[in-house]
Design brief:
This protein is of the alpha+beta class. It is built from 9 helices and 8 strands. Strands 4-5-3-6-2-1-7-8 form an 8-stranded mixed beta sheet, with helices on both faces. Helix 4 (82-91) crosses helix 8 (200-213). The longest helix has 15 residues, at 28-42. The protein is globular and about 55 Å long. The two termini are 35 Å apart.
Length: 258
């Protein structure tokens, strides 16, 4: 879980490479136990596979989301071009709850149960903290970055993939002023690299933001209030949305505004 140390591993001449799990804590023991049982009792040969996402949790169909909205008598829009509308809203300063697909396993929200905001201005970090997260001002928010731009923005090995927000790297000097909301006090950022084949909708949202602003990054933090778990169901998302200062909530294809 120490993303600073994990990032330093790339600059030390100790390992040829390092692999950090999406759940390198007690919760990962469940995954290990399941794999051990599978290989032991199914008697299949172990294979090495690159794990590129942690979307292992519950998912909800558009119909289930629609039924939830009807249940609570919530009026929602259904934008024709969802990513364009949301990207423009974020560029205009909206704080957005983003609820899509299967929930992430582990501590990091990686684009399915996320709160998203504009990464460019330091004031946005304070806005997220005061309106939603209610946590210490010094705790950083993560820059979810289109993978192909990552090593131009961060001092990281060329081609390094950081799927699980598990490594922090220095942000290059020419980008720090442009990324005020996600640049930590030491000039670093806890990176998440986003690839189209892993999460096409999240990728397209960031790319639309890039087209508007020239910045291929969104501020990404977990969709929850301080002291509460990450939202799992549409009901959880709606409750959290109306309990804090989020401006917009996206549930699947639907957009709810305050």
């Amino acid at each position: 879980m120490n993303c600073v140390f994990n990032g330093l591993l790339d600059s030390l001449d100790i390992y040829k490479d390092s692999c950090i799990s999406y759940s390198p804590d007690d919760s990962g023991v469940a995954i290990g136990a399941a794999l051990l049982a599978y290989y032991r009792y199914a008697k299949v040969k172990r294979t090495i596979t690159e794990v590129r996402h942690n979307f292992l949790g519950p998912s909800f169909s558009d119909e289930e989301v629609s039924q939830t909205l009807c249940k609570f008598k919530i009026i929602a829009e259904k934008p024709e071009s969802l990513t364009e509308v949301i990207a423009q809203g974020i560029a205009d300063g909206k704080l957005v709850g983003w609820f899509q697909g299967a929930m992430e396993f582990g501590h990091r929200s990686l684009g399915n149960r996320s709160i998203l905001a504009d990464p460019r201005f330091e004031s946005i970090k304070d806005k997220v903290n005061s309106a939603v997260k209610y946590r210490e001002h010094f705790r950083p928010f993560a820059p979810a970055t289109l993978s192909e731009y990552a090593d131009d923005i961060f001092e990281m090995p060329k081609g390094r993939k950081v799927y699980f927000m598990e490594r922090a790297y220095p942000i290059r000097e020419n980008w720090r002023e442009r990324l005020g909301a996600v640049t930590h006090v030491d000039g670093s950022g806890r990176v998440q690299t986003v690839e189209k084949k892993d999460n096409i909708l999240f990728y397209e949202l960031i790319d639309e933001f890039r087209k508007i602003t020239g910045v291929p990054i969104l501020l990404n933090t977990s969709f929850n209030l301080n002291g509460e778990p990450i939202v799992m169901t549409p009901e959880n998302a709606i409750r959290t949305f109306y309990s804090c200062g989020l401006d917009w909530l996206v549930l699947g294809p639907y957009l709810i505004k305050k």
